[in-house]
Amino acid sequence: MEPTQKVDLNNASMKHLTGLPGIPVNIARRIVAYRKRHGGIIHEWDELLNVNGFPGDRLDEIKARAVLGLPSARKAAVEGPLLHHFPGQKASRKAGKGHP
Known about the structure:
Layout lengths: L6 E2 L5 H4 L7 H13 L21 H7 E2 L4 H8 L21
Parallel strand pairs: 1-2
């Protein structure tokens, strides 16, 4: 990850979370667990204060280096279905083209 690239808290691995200020491995693990318990998404920054041991005094620093994006599964749903290519068919982005 590039230094200027922000960490997406809703998709970040524990490794990426530990790159944030004041987030050791045990807190990163709790953030991931919190995310899973709450439908895979952190909606508001203040929710992080519910994570046991989260360094609330560093929240502003973390906000500067992170974002609250959509989880990967929800991104796919919002962006629309993926185009599937079936053997013997040419892939096409035009509606109806390539269908029997």
